[in-house]
């Protein structure tokens, strides 16, 4: 059912869809003062995901994170209203591969902004748990914001049964095993994105990679170590140099 034209919250009007995820549809919207924002409309059965994202994101304040402004329901579906992250998702922004060769400065800025967002998130005791291109919105110059905290949670959060978070191609080994996740799991996802930027395709971190002259290849290898205890536990110091 089309939702464009519907109003939620305090006069926020949905204009057009701008993104789709497994749990939700994101609309470009304008508030009562004509200012742009984003409205994330969850599937009706995804109330727990919407509540999780609201609880974790509503108190966050960082220029590289989309800020949640409020919540509502629309035709029985949970809704979150947030600031608008301008640009395209990472893989759509960088269509010329390998990104570190074709647009090195812009791609490094994207990674630096992603690491800045993660440093702040981790300092708040949270982990994102789903670092992937669809959750990174990038502007033309490479400026980026991290979005979608519906899978986020407290560091090393435990569950009654092993629970797997994330997207397979960017998932750390411990995430694939359903273990409690810490900051190093998010950094593994960053490492996979760095590898994509170096090689032009997603690497297989379980296999030795052929020699590559890019000086950031050593950082890729460090971030994607299979043993979580051998990976960095903080984004600080991991940011690639321009």
What's the short story on this structure?
By secondary structure, the protein is of the alpha+beta class.
Task: Present the secondary structure layout.
Blueprint: E1 7-8, E2 12-20, E3 24-30, E4 36-42, H1 47-57, E5 68-74, E6 77-82, E7 88-89, H2 90-93, H3 99-102, H4 104-123, E8 126-127, E9 136-138, E10 144-146, E11 153-154, H5 173-176, H6 183-199, H7 217-223
Antiparallel strand pairs: 1-2, 2-3, 3-4, 4-6, 5-6, 7-9, 8-11, 9-10
CATH topology of the largest domain: Transferase(Phosphotransferase), domain 1
Helix content percent band: 25-40%
**Number of DSSP strands?**
11
- The CATH H-level superfamily of the largest domain is Transferase(Phosphotransferase) domain 1
Main-sheet strand order equals 1-2-3-4-6-5
CATH secondary-structure class of the largest domain:
Mainly Alpha
Rg, Å, rounded = 18 Å
The helix tally amounts to 7
Structural class: alpha+beta
- Count the domains: 2
Global shape: globular
Following the backbone from N to C, one meets helices and strands in this order, namely EEEEHEEEHHHEEEEHHH
Beta fraction of the residues?
A: 15-25%
How far apart are the first and last residues' alpha carbons, in Å? 46 Å
Average pLDDT works out at: 94
Unreliable spans are none
Per CATH, the architecture of the largest domain is: Orthogonal Bundle
């Amino acid at each position: 059912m089309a939702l464009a034209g519907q109003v939620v919250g305090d006069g926020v009007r949905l204009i057009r869809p701008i993104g789709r995820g497994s749990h939700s549809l994101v609309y470009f919207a304008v508030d009562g003062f004509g200012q742009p924002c984003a409205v994330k409309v969850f599937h009706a059965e995804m109330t727990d995901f919407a509540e999780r994202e609201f609880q974790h994101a509503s108190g966050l304040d960082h220029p590289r994170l989309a800020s949640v402004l409020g919540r509502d329901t629309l035709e029985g579906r949970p809704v979150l209203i947030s600031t608008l992250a301008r640009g395209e998702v990472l893989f759509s922004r960088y269509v010329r591969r390998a990104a570190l060769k074709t647009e090195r400065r812009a791609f490094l800025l994207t990674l630096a902004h992603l690491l800045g967002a993660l440093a702040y998130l981790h300092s708040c005791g949270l982990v994102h748990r789903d670092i992937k291109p669809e959750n990174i919105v990038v502007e033309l110059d490479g400026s980026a914001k991290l979005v979608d905290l519906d899978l986020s949670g407290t560091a090393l959060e435990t569950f009654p049964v092993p629970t797997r978070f994330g997207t397979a191609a960017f998932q750390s080994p411990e995430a694939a095993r359903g273990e409690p996740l810490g900051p190093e799991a998010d950094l593994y996802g960053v490492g996979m994105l760095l590898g994509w930027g170096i090689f032009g395709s997603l690497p297989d971190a379980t296999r030795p990679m052929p020699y590559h002259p890019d000086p950031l290849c050593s950082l890729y290898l460090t971030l994607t170590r299979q043993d979580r205890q051998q990976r960095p536990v903080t984004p600080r110091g991991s940011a690639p140099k321009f």
